[in-house]
Amino acid sequence: MAGPRLPDARTAAVPDVRSSLLAGALIGVAVMAAVDEIVFHQLLAWHHFYDRSTPSVALLSDGLLHAAELIGLVAGFFWFADLRRRAALATRHAWGGFLLGAGGFQVFDGLVDHKVLRLHQIRYGVHLVPYDVLWNVGGAVLLLAGAALVRRARAGGRR
């Protein structure tokens, strides 16, 4: 029984820029959600995903966030692996998407979850401005780096 047929120079797929970008973004969102959930929710115990109820609800909300992040991570890596299998992965676009996804999660969490919806704050019992600035500036730096990488990839026309 023959294994999967690998593309050669005559049958190589055209890079799928959009899917590479989106698969990278999904992985980026999932990784940043994992960092937030593991570091800030579990290790430092600064907050939970939803702090406006009982401790049981807060723990449940963390579990749902963790489940969603794991589903996103698995789906993103299956998508990534499929692109590689078909020789359609645009690597620079995938890395740019990863940074855009990670930064997008960070900025969304910092502005929407923390300030607009007030689901939780980064930390309680302290002056929040330095934490908010670091959180949102860190996300913005990731977004800018991702945008710059995607722009360079598009200009270079390389994988």
Describe it.
It is a single chain. This protein has 159 residues and is mainly α. Helix content is 70%, strand content 0%. It contains four helices and no strands. The chain has helices spanning 17-43, 55-85, 91-116, 129-156. The mean pLDDT is 91.
Give the total of beta strands. 0
Helix content: over 70%
Question: What share of the residues does DSSP label as strand, in percent?
Answer: under 5%
Regions with little confidence, pLDDT below 50 for 5+ residues: none
Structural class estimated from helices and strands = mainly alpha
Number of helices: 4
Oligomer: single chain
Choose one word for the global shape: flat
What sequence of helices (H) and strands (E) makes up the elements?
HHHH
- The whole-angstrom Rg is 19 Å
Biggest β-sheet: count, sense, barrel?
A: none
Averaged pLDDT, please?
Answer: 91
C-alpha termini separation: 32 Å
Short description:
The protein is mostly helical and 159 residues long. It has four helices and no strands. The longest helix is centred in the middle third of the chain and has 31 residues, at 55-85.
